[in-house]
Amino acid sequence: MIISDYNQSRIRETNSKDFNKNGKYILYWMQSYRRLNFNHALDYSIQIANQTGLPLVVYEGIRMNYPWASERLHKFILEGFCDNFNSAKKIGITYWPFVETPENQDKDLLFKMSESAYVIITDDFPCFIIPNHIQKVSEKSNYKVIAVDGNCIAPIINYGEVASAARVIRTRIHTQFPEAYINRSLASPKLKNIPTYKGKPPFEPFSCQIEDIPKILKKIPFKLKIKPANDVIGGRKEGLKILKNFINNKLTRYSVDRSNPSPPDKCATSSLSPYIHFGYLSIDEIVEEVLNFNLNQKWAPDLLNFTQKGKRELFFHKDDFVNSFLDEILTWRDIGFLLFHKNPSFNKDISILPEWIKTNLKKHSKDKRPFIYTKEQFDKCDTHDKLWNSAQKELMITGRMHNYMRMLWGKKVIEWTSSYEEAFLILEDFNNKYAYDGRNPNSYSGILWCFGLFDRPWFPERPIFGNLRFMSSDSTMKKFKMTEYLQYISSLEGNKETLFG
Ligand SMILES: Cc1cc2nc3c(=O)[nH]c(=O)nc-3n(C[C@H](O)[C@H](O)[C@H](O)COP(=O)(O)OP(=O)(O)OC[C@H]3O[C@@H](n4cnc5c(N)ncnc54)[C@H](O)[C@@H]3O)c2cc1C
């Protein structure tokens, strides 16, 4: 199999070193897209293995001390390891899982593996610690490193410059879509002619048995004491279950009900973001499943309605709920990925906001705040506002927060802190330490949306917010029936003590 010309735009050589002529295997270093199906980097690794006749080794590792590391995130990731271990066995892929503990430390493992690898191929994720990891490994390795962009439906490079608003990138996505859809990643890897590597990894591999996860978690001295949320399970198997439940039971309500804050089992949204963030599911497969919902024939790009190009409605599908869902998972997701792709870095802060917002915020920076809370007060859910406290509790206890509540939550922290910079840092920290889907370009585009990014000026100009969109708990209470949501949050309260001690 040779990857298509279209997908060549996903491939980026991250150093100019040679391939290792004495290499014994192709190393796929799985960092962001933690799955063995629908995976562009894996497809490319298999192509190189086929071309060279060398075996393929998939390495997935987790260190102890990444930013915001906690038992919550670690467990979710290790459950994904177990699924990958089982799939690798079925498919016949050599899979090397590494979990760092105080007694089994990562002493330059990638460098050691790179010395025997013909090439390292990895995921090109534009946010969090990944760009830095790739750069360091590319510098240190004596051989070629290649990063593969499997982030979005289309190669990000094809989207052009940073988009200022959703309508701008929507048109570009619609233009790319037919080719991107045809060139989706493969549902199952085809390994027919690839030999198996007989050597051993340069470390003690993790057993990948579910029952060993608590034992290994106990060994790790996490600085953040955040326990896993009840009933939240990581891994591809669980992600597929949630996708199926969404399509069968929620999708048809999506366009009407998605903004309505309600308990996760009742709300119309998918709850897929953690599974997308950790790469357990691919955008390609989710989009395909949704497009094929309730059709008599297999969906194909000739069903696209190009008279609606650039519009939210009717472009992809006759059903409004399909278009509505795709607009979130494509337009709103990809706008953040494009922003990071153009300037990959650990994070983004409010200095990235457009000039009109920066000028506006400067003008209002000294405005009197109606309430000022410290980070500790916010963290204890101790504000005067019951709805805000509930949203924060949801995040802390369950590791998720409904999208509408997330917007209100962010806007209120801006209103109740003494500076915009402080508000940003509080939101970043809470979002990234508690949320399963944090540490993602969407984390930053979501938080920065509260500061006006990708939004338009709103009138009249107000204190503190200037021309930024304003949101209030009172209007949220009027707009939605919140009783069920509030009861759900109260029902979680008992868990708070056990989760944080
Ligand atoms: C302050 C704030 C912080 C946020 N932090 C994150 C975060 O850390 N990680 C994260 O993935 N999203 C974040 N979002 C965006 C959005 O809230 C979540 O993607 C969504 O709530 C996830 O729930 P779901 O999977 O049920 O979404 P669904 O409505 O079912 O949507 C399906 C998928 O589309 C994408 N999507 C949906 N809405 C948005 C959006 N507004 N922006 C970008 N992508 C979207 C996500 O990948 C999501 O999983 C944030 C939004 C705000 C306002």
Helical content band:
40-55%
- Proportion in β-strands: 5-15%
**Largest beta sheet: strand ordering:** 1-6-5-2-3-4
Ions, cofactors, ligands: which are bound?
A: flavin-adenine dinucleotide
**What characteristic shape results from the CA principal axes?**
globular
How does CATH name the architecture of the domain at 350-500?
Answer: Orthogonal Bundle
Computed Rg: 23 Å
Distance from first to last alpha carbon: 53 Å
CATH H-tier superfamily of the domain at 350-500: DNA Cyclobutane Dipyrimidine Photolyase, subunit A, domain 3
Here the CATH topology of the domain at 350-500 equals DNA Cyclobutane Dipyrimidine Photolyase, subunit A, domain 3
Task: Give the total of beta strands.
Answer: 6
Topology:
Layout (H helix, E strand, L loop, with lengths): L10 E3 L11 E5 L10 H13 L3 E7 L8 H21 L2 E6 L9 H8 E7 L6 H11 L4 E4 L17 H17 L30 H7 L16 H14 L4 H4 L15 H5 L5 H9 L28 H23 L12 H10 L10 H5 L6 H13 L4 H13 L4 H15 L6 H10 L22 H7 L3 H18 L1
Parallel strand pairs: 2-3, 2-5, 3-4, 5-6
Antiparallel strand pairs: 1-6
The structure holds flavin-adenine dinucleotide.
